[in-house]
Design a protein that fits this description.
The complex is a heterodimer. Chain A is α+β, with helices and mostly antiparallel strands. Chain A has helices spanning 7-23, 26-31, 63-89, 94-99; strands spanning 34-38, 41-46, 53-55, 60-61, 106-114, 123-132, 136-144, 151-160. In chain A, 34% of the residues lie in helices and 32% in strands. In chain B, the strands form three sheets. In chain B, strands 1-2-7-8-9-6 form a six-stranded antiparallel sheet. In chain B, strands 3-4 form a two-stranded antiparallel ribbon. Chain B has a two-stranded antiparallel sheet with strand order 5-10. The chains are: A alpha+beta, B alpha+beta.
Amino acid sequence: MARPEPVQQVKRRRDLALKTLVDSVPYAGFLGIIFERHGDELTAVLPYDEKLIGNPVLPALHGGVIASFLEVTAIIELSWAMLWDEVETGRLTPEAMAANLPRLPKTIDFTVDYLRTGLPRDGYARARVNRSGRRYASVHVEAWQDNRARLFAQATGHFLMPPRGNG
Amino acid sequence: MVGNSPQDFIEALPFARALGMRLEEIGDGKARISMDWDPRFVGDPATGVIHGGAVSALMDTCGGAAVMSYPGALTTATIDLRIDYMRAATPGQRITARAECYHVTRRVAFVRATAHDEDSANPVATAAGAFTFDRKEGR
């Protein structure tokens, strides 16, 4: 039996692959979205910033910020799930990824439920891939602020998967 | 709505300002808002195509503006919004959204919207949503 890979090496490879993926999306950086990882589970974090406000009177996060946060989370989760096996087996190194960025899933449709006002503080989101076939995928996303059980928004989206080589 | 000119409506919303939105036309339950292509708004660097979320933000703002311009409207908030993406917006081109508040009840406004780039014959995206509707007192 082969010796297991040292844990630091595993973590470094996964973190670097995730960073390469997220850094490749300029709009995620524009919004300030970062991703935390535990194993293969991702949590998106949207740190509060004044420019994210839509209603200055309340004040509340802009509905478009919330939709964007959920859609970024869905696409990164779906891409991460798509690349995970290749990253784990070493067929795709973070360096190769950076040199030749993977094509991302394309949104077909996206429906957002605004459940509560987005407060002027940090937001969190997690996406679940309910179905991912060769061509189409369905993803659900939940977002919350202070309490995990009190969602302030949720969304469902359908995506067209990019062609992937079998090599 | 804050301010007197239509553009003040946009300027009062920090995120609409951050995306560089321009209010082209508003009134009677209809609005038209545009947004320039910007490298910071790109979703897929391989193609330079703007992120769907930025298009959503434009559609949501335009939908909200349409509701606010409906006679008697006081405040509004999005209840839900569905966006269908027909095609990728051409990189470098300005995107324009048109929204229409086509029906209101006592508490709810129904909105549909479309977005185009400089090819006005082929929509980039369409949207349908429900918004809260609060009326001014004392009609």
